[in-house]
C-alpha cells in the first residue's frame, strides 16, 4: 500500500475533479492525503447559506473536511494562501493570494507536508489548470517544481499525474445539449428558449481552453462503484453547490454517464490515444 497526495486549489475541487478516484484508492487501503492551496474565500456563496458573521473561508474549510471524510481521506492540509479569484479578477493582485506566490516558496510549503508523508504519487492539474483558473495553473506549476526539485536532490521516486477534463467527451455532451436546446427553441419550450444560453454553449464547443483531447489522456478511471460517495462529497460543499444545481439535480443514470469516469495524464508516458480505462492510476 502506498501514499497518494492530491494537490488541489480550493475546497470542492477535490470532489468534482477526483473524488471518485480518491474514494477508490482509500477503499483499496492506500493512504490518501489532500493538500489544498487556499480556503476558497473568493467563491460565490449560495444566497442565504452563510450564518450571521460566518466567513466564506470558514464555511468552505468545514465543508472540505466533511467531504474528505466521505471520500476516506486520511489527512487534510491547507497551504494557507489566499484564494486568487477567477482570471482577471482584482483578487488576482492580492499580495497573499496563491497566484502571487513565489513558486519556490510555495514548493517549500508543499515540501514540508510531503516530507512527512513520503508519497509515491502526486496529483496536480494539467498545464492549463483544467480551465485556466489562476490558482489551478499555480497548482500545476508548484507541484511540477516540487517533483523536479525532489528528483534533483536524489529523493525517493515520486510519480506525477495530471487530473484533467476529457475535452472530446464534454464537447460531445454539449453538442447533444445544444441540439436539444435548438429543437426546444423551435417548439417554444421556455426551459431552453434563452438565446444567450445557446450562444454560451456554442462558444464552449469552439473553445480549446479547457481540459485535454481524448488522445492525450492516459488514464480513464472508472468510479461508478463509488459514485454515491462522490455525489455525497459534492453535496457537502453546500455553500457553492445547491441541491438544485446541475451536479446534484440530475438523475442517477445521467450523473453516472457524466461523472462515472475521471481523467488523468501520466506526463512521462507516450500518449497513444488509448486511455487505460479502469487503471487504478498507481505507479
Give structural attributes.
283 residues; alpha/beta; Rossmann fold; seven-stranded mixed beta sheet; 14% strand
Total strand segments: 7
- Write the CATH homologous superfamily of the largest domain: LmbE-like
| Mean pLDDT over the full residue set | 88
Distance between the termini: 11 Å
Number of domains: 2
For the record, the CATH architecture of the largest domain stands as 3-Layer(aba) Sandwich
* Protein structure class: alpha/beta
Q: Helix amount, in percent? A: 40-55%
Q: What is the percentage of strand-forming residues?
A: 5-15%
CATH class of the largest domain: Alpha Beta
- The Cα radius of gyration reads 19 Å
Return the CATH topology of the largest domain. Rossmann fold
Q: Give the strand line-up of the largest sheet.
A: 3-2-1-4-5-7-6
Number of discrete helical segments: 10
The SSE order reads EHEHEHEHHEHHEHHHE
List low-confidence stretches. Answer: 189-194
Largest sheet: 7 strands, mixed
The general outline is globular
Oligomer: single chain
Briefly summarize what is shown.
This protein is an alpha/beta fold and 283 residues long. Helices cover 44% and strands 14% of the residues. The protein has two domains: 1-166 and 213-283, Rossmann fold; 167-210.
Amino acid at each position: 500500500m502506498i501514499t497518494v497526495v492530491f494537490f488541489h486549489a480550493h475546497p470542492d475541487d477535490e470532489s468534482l475533479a477526483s473524488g471518485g478516484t480518491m474514494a477508490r484508492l482509500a477503499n483499496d487501503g492506500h493512504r490518501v492525503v489532500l493538500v489544498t492551496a487556499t480556503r476558497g474565500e473568493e467563491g460565490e456563496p449560495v444566497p442565504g447559506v452563510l450564518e450571521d458573521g460566518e466567513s466564506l473561508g470558514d464555511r468552505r474549510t468545514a465543508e472540505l473536511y466533511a467531504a474528505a471524510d466521505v471520500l476516506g481521506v486520511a489527512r487534510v492540509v491547507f497551504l494557507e494562501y489566499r484564494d486568487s479569484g477567477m482570471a482577471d479578477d482584482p483578487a488576482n493582485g492580492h499580495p497573499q493570494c496563491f497566484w502571487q506566490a513565489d513558486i519556490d516558496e510555495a514548493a517549500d510549503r508543499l515540501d514540508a507536508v510531503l516530507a512527512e508523508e513520503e508519497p509515491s504519487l502526486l496529483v496536480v492539474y494539467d498545464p492549463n489548470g483544467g480551465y485556466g483558473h489562476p490558482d489551478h495553473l499555480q497548482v500545476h506549476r508548484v507541484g511540477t517544481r516540487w517533483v523536479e526539485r525532489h528528483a534533483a536532490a536524489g529523493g525517493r521516486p515520486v510519480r506525477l499525474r495530471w487530473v484533467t477534463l476529457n475535452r472530446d467527451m464534454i464537447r460531445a455532451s454539449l453538442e447533444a445539449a445544444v441540439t436539444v436546446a435548438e429543437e426546444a427553441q423551435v417548439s417554444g419550450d421556455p426551459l431552453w428558449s434563452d438565446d444567450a444560453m445557446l450562444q454560451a454553449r456554442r462558444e464552449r464547443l469552439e473553445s480549446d481552453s479547457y481540459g485535454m483531447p481524448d488522445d492525450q489522456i492516459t488514464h480513464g478511471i472508472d468510479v461508478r462503484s463509488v459514485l454515491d460517495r462522490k455525489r455525497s462529497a459534492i453535496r457537502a460543499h453546500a455553500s457553492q453547490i445547491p441541491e438544485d444545481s446541475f451536479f446534484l439535480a440530475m438523475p442517477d443514470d445521467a450523473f453516472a454517464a457524466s461523472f462515472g469516469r475521471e481523467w488523468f495524464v501520466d506526463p512521462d508516458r507516450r500518449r497513444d490515444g488509448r486511455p487505460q480505462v479502469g487503471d487504478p492510476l498507481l505507479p
